[in-house]
Structure to design on (171 residues):
């Protein structure tokens, strides 16, 4: 009988059936190609897995940062929901961020307005909250036009203090 399929390239594999001979040659070259490409494939897989791991690490770090940010804002948002002015003052004096946001990107100002706590929203404005135009419109929609006007006046005053940007436009 003939030699093994994986013998040297110039070896002859002989079999009675020419189809088996052809398949043997194809098999031998496929195996050799894989053996030659194995280091390249290995490094390609290493690069792919490394990039995937790096991406996963970045995503997890971002989620961790976001989780931390939301957790810090949660007590003030809860006090806003309940309308607990005393607790709100304590938290703000202890360094709570009046701009803190929740998972749905809603601020303590928005929570106070939506839950009918305009006094708490005023407290937040007094302590430096800068509600978005969307949050101000929420105040109007929920029946607090005075609160919305107060927030707009505060925003206008803040823009006047900051002055125009390099292009001459208010920031």
């Amino acid at each position: 009988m003939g030699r093994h399929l994986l013998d040297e390239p110039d070896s002859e594999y002989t079999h009675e059936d020419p189809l088996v001979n052809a398949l043997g040659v194809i098999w031998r070259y496929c195996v050799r190609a894989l053996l030659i490409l194995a280091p390249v494939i290995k490094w390609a897989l290493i690069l792919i897995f490394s990039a995937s791991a790096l991406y996963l690490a970045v995503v997890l770090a971002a989620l961790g940062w976001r989780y931390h940010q939301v957790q810090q804002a949660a007590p003030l948002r809860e006090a806003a929901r309940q309308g607990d002015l005393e607790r709100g003052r304590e938290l703000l004096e202890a360094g709570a961020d009046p701009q803190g946001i929740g998972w749905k990107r809603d601020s303590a100002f928005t929570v106070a307005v939506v839950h009918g706590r305009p006094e708490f929203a005023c407290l937040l404005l007094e302590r430096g909250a800068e509600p978005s135009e969307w949050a101000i419109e929420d105040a109007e929609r929920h029946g607090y036009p005075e609160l919305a006007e107060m927030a707009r006046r505060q925003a206008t005053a803040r823009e006047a203090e900051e002055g125009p940007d390099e292009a001459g436009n208010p920031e």
